Amino acid sequence: MLLGNEVQVYEEVEVSCSTGETESYQETFFTEVIRRRELDFIKQVLMAEKPRLVLDYGCGGGWLSRLIFKWGFEVVGIDLSKRLVKVAKFVCREGDFVVCDAMRLPFRDGAFDSIIGISILHHLPKLSMALSELKRVSAFRAVCLFMEPNLLNPVSAFGRKFFPMEAHTAGEKPFAFGYLKAAFGLAGFTVEKYFALFFIAFPIARLLKVTKMKLPAWIVRAILLFENVMEKMPFIRCLNSNIVALVRA
Hints:
Blueprint: H1 5-19, H2 25-49, E1 53-57, H3 63-70, E2 74-79, H4 82-91, E3 96-99, E4 112-118, H5 127-137, E5 138-149, H6 154-162, H7 177-186, E6 190-197, H8 201-211, H9 217-230, E7 242-248
Parallel strand pairs: 1-2, 1-4, 2-3, 4-5
Antiparallel strand pairs: 5-7, 6-7
């Protein structure tokens, strides 16, 4: 859970991202190289499944909920932060937002046809309890998509140690690549796709944000080419920094 000043700092970061107040080079790099790739995959999944109702699990300031609605889907967002839910209601007026504990969801069984969560599960103190709740509120064969940090990425590990971000939660810990997959299986989900993205792009975005450095365009292009190669190497791609899990209830 978030404690003391961590709450304020985390909320300020999320608010600036959701309301579009953050326009620096660092956020632009992150958006173009990382977020666009993630969002393309999320949109692809939702367009293929055509869910009736989507849960934005850990919605923060509502930036993803707004996109989900623009793509043509009804969306409900949850977050533990009252402040962020208030922002989400402003950012995505068409969505429904609830302040609640992710491990005690105030919804009926089978309420959602799809659940999307980005970097939320590794913040929770009891993963098994959270997954059990997610299974409960998922409709039969609901598609669920989660993106979480990979403990095995050496570049991210270096960044976490020497260039810590300004917003963290007490006790948060990235997942080892195989651990999260096993946890979904134990909770009763069927894992359909499980892979990892971004060997160096996400850690570089972290470095740029902390150091305020800038990269020339040719280096950005080189990073993208490098990522394309890394994702095609079966024995290396499990070390990429962002785990992507597509599962069914």
